[in-house]
Amino acid sequence: MPALFERFFPEESLNKYFSGTMPATNISETETSFVLEIAAPSLKKEDFQIQIEQTLLTVKVAKNAPVEGKTVAQGVHYKRQEFDYTNFKRSFRLGKNIDTDRIEASYEDGILRIELSKKENAQEKATRTINIA
């Protein structure tokens, strides 16, 4: 079976897809904000660096990753490592409707959550009836 797997999925082609793994990101919108949720399990909040430069939000993690064939714990050796969230950089271009002074971040259960508040004048106004005089 391993020979069959290698025949259809040679290691060179797998490395193209799996090296430099980028965590999955969900983006949602509420009435007052946008929310980014980045799946990054096994990290600590101290591992993240979040920066904003004008309208570019960048999330980075740079840690020493275990190397294939290297012992990472007593009795544990990586023969192949296809997921690795120890090094990544992800950037998001923010719209002009984001209040860059009111960005908040939290990390819980392997999810980095970044809330991007909308500027007051960019928030959708509730529907109202206009009386005719």
Estimate what percentage of residues fall within beta strands. Answer: 35-45%
H/E series: HHEEEEEEEEE
Query: Which fold name corresponds to the CATH topology?
Result: Immunoglobulin-like
Q: Number of helical runs?
A: 2
Helicity level: 10-25%
The CATH architecture can be given as Sandwich
* Main sheet properties: 4 strands, antiparallel
Task: Give the total of domains.
Answer: 1
What global shape is seen? elongated
**Helix/strand structural class:** mainly beta
Instruction: Identify the strand order in the major beta sheet.
Output: 1-2-9-8
Uncertain segments are 4-19
CATH class: Mainly Beta
How does this model look, in words?
The structure is a single chain. Helix content is 11%, strand content 42%. The model is unreliable at 4-19 (pLDDT under 50). The protein has one domain: Immunoglobulin-like, CATH 2.60.40.790. The chain has 2 helices and 9 strands; from the N terminus they run ααβββββββββ. A 4-stranded antiparallel beta sheet has the order 1-2-9-8, with no helix packed on it. A 3-stranded antiparallel beta sheet has the order 3-4-7, with no helix packed on it. A hairpin with a 3-residue loop joins strand 1 (25-29) and strand 2. It has helices at residues 2-8, 11-18; strands at 25-29, 33-39, 48-53, 56-62, 71-73, 76-77, 87-93, 98-108, 111-118. The longest helix is centred in the first third of the chain and has 8 residues, at 11-18. The chain is elongated, with a radius of gyration of 21 Å. It has 133 residues and is mostly beta strands.
